[in-house]
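Quick start: read one record
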Amino acid sequence: MKKLLVLSLVLISIASFAQQKSPSWTKDLIVYEIATKSFNSPDKPETGTFNSVREKLPYLRKLGINAIWLTGNSWADDHHFYNIWTQYACFRPDSIDLSLGTRKEFRELISTAHKNGIKVFLDVITHGVMEGSPLIKEHPEWFKGGSWGMIDYDWAGKHKDLDDWWVKTFTDYCLEDGVDGYRLDVNIFRPDLWLIIRQNCLSKGKEIVILLENERYSGDAIDFYQSNNNPIAAHTTKNEISKQKLVTDPGIFYSSRISPEGNGHVCMAVSLSCHDNGWDGFPEGENPYVAKGSRALLGYNTFFSPAIPILMSGEEFNADYRPIPWLKSDLFGKKSTTGTWLYGSWIQWEQLKDKEKASVLSDVTRMIRIRKKYSDIICGYSLNDTTHIIKSLIPIKGDVSNPYILAIKGDKAILVVGNRKDYAQTISLQIPYRELGFESATLTDIWNDNGKKVKLPADGVMEFEIGADHTSMGGLSVWLIEK
């Protein structure tokens, strides 16, 4: 009877947590993905450490980043995937990889990140471990089958000691090391365990977020899904979320992940590039980054979208792709040709001396600054949001992707226009200000420093020029709409 009472209390606790909202700061996240070994290794490739990442935190703070997704902390193999060290070839998730530093240095990285206003999320390899993992020798009954050249956990085997170890491992990272959440690789497998982990942390006053790579059933344990690389489609009339209260009309399309079970608290998220760009078959010698300096993609698609932006390190200044010299071109490193996997890009920070790259960084910093200034409008919208509006417009004049308006009902709005062309264009739009509840409207240019103001005529039609993409301050036009 006592055991049944304890079990009932646990189930009630989990059910109660499942009904709670994500942390209030979730919608304002700006996530920056870091491959620990190659993010900051100035002397030799693959010599990045916790300390070298820590050295770059002031740079990230100045950029405006408030969360890092650290794709490298636990003991892993140094050649299994693409012949380089990767977090994804994990030996055991409860151990720090000593080639990255000590546990003390790991904690110092997290503590310093917090002092810089930056949260830290860890990558979790949920499906299994490398064949030589000591976990397999210690607990052979925990494992069954395999994938990705590794041995998989037997998540369906009802191994209570496996469940307990998993919960303790990822509770401890948060409560003892200060970690703020997790990105789950491949699948969640056991949502119930992640609900317990979250409840454990919450009971100690620690809020965490969990994002999942793929759109799968998550049992209400997920705050947002990692987006694919696909940017907002140009000239689209498809609307994947038209049935949600969030959208007022068809015409705007986001590649954001949406909970397949319809959890209303799930935020939209969007990324252009991630570490998986450049997989097998990607053209040799080409750059696997997506934006490549396009202000339209970086702004219209990412930082001004109503979604949590996830930025791959280096994309903020249009970094050239430079692979780790021994990176191979196929998953298991059998081919002799050099690969293009973005996880294995060795970032060259001296490229920031180049005026064009410094210009991209300056524009991205401006985008993030504007996003933060108007965070009541430009943030990650959740699916049960009834206070925010997204409205897509069809341009009267101009060969541009569908402009869109983000608004808070009855207050103010932001107009975003992206120009993907490498030439300036004159754009003409009709602003439906009355549909926003405005009797009249004034528009202020918040992208350019001139702060130009335009009082809309009664018909709501305005005309303006938007600069060429891939140029300083080009590719975008962003306006504040007020009564």
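Residues 355-373 form the longest helix (19 residues).
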